[in-house]
Design brief:
The structure holds two protein chains of two kinds. Chain A is an alpha+beta fold. Chain A has helices at residues 47-54, 76-80, 97-107, 112-125, 141-154, 171-188, 199-205, 223-228, 233-238, 332-338; strands at 9-18, 21-31, 36-40, 62-67, 70-71, 83-86, 159-163, 191-196, 208-213, 216-221, 243-253, 256-261, 264-269, 276-281, 287-290, 301-312, 315-321, 325-331, 345-349, 356-360. Chain A contains ten helices and 20 strands. In chain A, the strands form four sheets. A six-stranded mixed β-sheet of chain A has the order 6-7-8-3-9-10, with helices on both faces. In chain A, strands 13-12-11-14-20 form a five-stranded antiparallel β-sheet. In chain B, helix 6 (128-136) crosses helix 7. The radius of gyration of chain B is 21 Å and the shape is globular. Residues 235-256 of chain B have low confidence and may be disordered.
Chain lengths: 361, 256
């Protein structure tokens, strides 16, 4: 077993204020060496501020940034030269593609011969080899972002910081680039921080995920625990849990728990000790059936009336009014088979294992 | 109309007969204004960068001063510098009054706000995040400035042209601090002034035409360099996707 490594980057008691208002408040955050940390959160959560602080491009109002456990004060330039940043926009210089990739190397004092070779290698890796002699002005958005990634990897940084690198790209371009980035990250084993509002991207690229909401870290852990077991209603809403019902425990039996959620009985797999909880359901875990005299006392069956149906590509998002709102995502095909329309009665069903409970006071 | 014709004929005559005065005066104009522009370039780029990137108290005042300075009345500059360099003035001991040095200073003062204004506008037109990106690539402050100045090299050339134009075409300050002394501090604009007030309208016209011709030649040179930069810039291949250029190809300055 490896001895636990010093985290590559750490924040301690960091507060960033803009115009007097705190935009970031992080008591403690470690970026583990050799791993990819995804930072997710809604727009305006302070994700970019967090990234700029880690990149030593923004000085926190209070607190310290540590690089390999050592203070960074007065070392910003030297440490910036051990890191690389890819922004949302490609931000290329008005030069050739090759010169763009070489610029950072030149600024870091890499010899001319090495510059050329490294730039070439990484342009090839990101499929931009044939574009080397072209002007950066002639590239499409996706091509430019490939050059931006090649430019960052060519620096052979110890830390790679990525600020929503694909959010301005169309879906197919995004897919292809995510794949290439994933390969490059795995091969170089570079310590990385990926800031994104895209949950899929965060889960796919990150070894660990932290959730940032309104400048504060709400949850951190492996992707499956963050997405599967959000700690509060806001995190739940952000990670794609669309149904959150307040409930109280009525019975416990061998790891199974029965709760009363507004008059309906919900069964969940959980053996923690609490009396009140929020029942969380992801829309894809809820199935619908026609209301053919279903018994309302059955567990994990909640009857209601279809309030709204939204068609999204191959799927349909159905909002069911059961006194509270319950959201289901089913295929368009099954929607047609069920013949459900707005105003129809229907029953929502879900498995006990699909229920995630957030304890409440 | 005759006057214009006479002027043209005399200008031609002055040049082809290799009149030493003409070449001496034109050479001095070029030297004084060239030096002034060089000084103004160093100062103007520094001030321009400070105004574009700095977040200091008094930035508004600095911007206002620069914008005013871009149209600074040369006689006021001349008067101020003459007072400073006057034999009994604070810098009188230098004994620079009525020398080309005094003229260089005066013209540099006139050209600096012009170059400052252009530089600040050019740098401010860049994507503000580009600066962060350049820092993130590992640039020191000076390296960052150098990389970004390269980004605005076309508008910067326009700034040099505008600065040189302002320097070589002004007359009030040069005459006040230089004294318009023949063979010593007389430049083209001063000669035009002198000949006109002596009633030699043809000769005045001739020197005016020579001044204009010289400005055209100098600007043609800079324009040639400007276009060269554009031509050297690698081009899109046929069929390349050019609908989303990273930066606009034409700035208001490249259209000048």
């Amino acid at each position: 077993m490896d001895a636990p490594l010093t985290p590559k980057l750490s924040l301690r008691a960091v507060i960033v204020r803009r115009a007097g208002r705190p935009v970031l408040n992080i008591p403690s955050l470690d970026v583990p060496t050799g791993r990819v940390l995804s930072v997710i959160g809604p727009n305006g959560a302070g994700k970019t501020t967090l990234l700029l602080t880690l990149a030593l491009l923004e000085r926190p109002t209070q607190g310290t940034v540590l690089f390999e456990g050592a203070r960074t004060t007065g070392q910003a330039l030297a440490l910036r030269r051990r890191m690389a940043v890819v922004f949302q926009e490609p931000l290329l210089l008005d030069r050739t593609v090759q010169a763009n990739v070489e610029t950072g190397l030149a600024l870091r004092g890499v010899s001319r011969g090495d510059r050329h070779g490294r730039a070439r290698t990484w342009l090839e890796r990101f499929g931009m080899g044939p574009f080397a002699a072209r002007s950066s002005r002639t590239l499409s958005g996706g091509e430019a972002q490939r050059v931006s990634l090649a430019r960052a990897f060519a620096l052979e940084p110890e830390v790679l910081l990525l600020d929503e690198p694909f959010s301005a790209l169309d879906q197919p371009t995004r897919e292809a680039l995510t794949e290439d980035l994933s390969n490059a990250l795995r091969q170089t084993r570079v310590t990385a921080v990926l800031v994104t509002h895209d949950r899929d991207e965060a889960a796919r690229l990150g070894d660990d995920v932290v959730v940032l909401i309104r400048g504060e870290l709400r949850q951190s852990g492996p992707p499956e625990s963050v997405f599967g077991a959000p700690v509060d209603a806001e995190v739940a809403a952000f990670v794609g849990v669309e149904t959150v019902l307040p409930a109280s425990v009525v019975e416990r039996r061998e790891g199974l728990m029965t709760l009363d959620a507004g008059g309906y009985l919900v069964e969940a797999v959980d053996d923690r000790a609490f009396e009140q909880a929020l029942v969380c359901l992801r829309p894809e875990d809820v199935t619908l059936s026609p209301a053919a005299g279903a018994a309302t006392s059955a567990r994990n069956h909640i009857p209601g009336r279809v309030r709204r149906v939204v068609l999204t590509g191959a799927d349909a998002r159905v909002e069911l009014d059961c006194g509270v709102t319950l959201v289901a995502r089913i295929t368009r095909r099954s929607l047609e088979d069920l013949g459900l329309r707005e105003g129809d009665d229907a029953v929502a069903t879900f498995k006990a294992t699909a229920v995630h409970l957030i304890p409440r006071q | 109309m005759d006057l214009l014709w006479d002027g043209l004929r005399e200008a031609f005559w002055l040049i082809v007969h290799n009149d030493e005065d003409v070449f001496e005066i034109a050479g001095r104009s070029l030297y004084v204004s060239g030096m002034a522009t060089a000084i103004a370039l160093v100062l103007g780029v520094g001030f321009g960068a400070a105004i574009a990137f700095g977040r200091f108290p008094g930035r508004f005042v600095a911007l206002t001063l620069v914008n005013t300075g871009m149209g600074l009345p040369p006689v006021v500059v001349g008067l101020f510098i003459a007072i400073m360099l006057w034999r009994s003035g604070p810098l009188g001991e230098l004994e620079w009054i009525y020398t080309t040095r005094a003229m260089i200073i005066a013209q540099a003062v006139i050209a600096t706000p012009v170059i400052t204004g252009f530089t600040a506008a050019a740098l401010a037109s860049l994507n503000p995040k580009l600066r962060l990106q350049v820092y993130a690539l590992g640039a020191s402050k000076l390296q960052m400035l150098w990389v970004l100045l390269r980004e605005v090299r076309l508008p910067l050339l326009a700034a040099i042209m505008a600065g040189f134009g302002a320097a070589i075409s002004e007359v009030g300050a040069s005459v006040m601090v230089g004294g318009n002394i023949p063979g010593h501090t007389r430049v083209l604009t001063g000669t035009v002034l002198r000949e006109q007030s002596s009633g030699n309208l043809g000769t005045a016209m001739a020197f005016g035409i020579i001044l204009l011709a010289m400005m055209i030649i100098v600007n043609a040179l800079f324009t040639w360099v400007q276009l060269g930069i554009r031509r050297d810039a690698p081009r899109a291949r046929d069929g390349a996707d050019t609908d989303t250029p990273a930066y606009p190809l034409v700035t208001p300055w490249t259209l000048r």
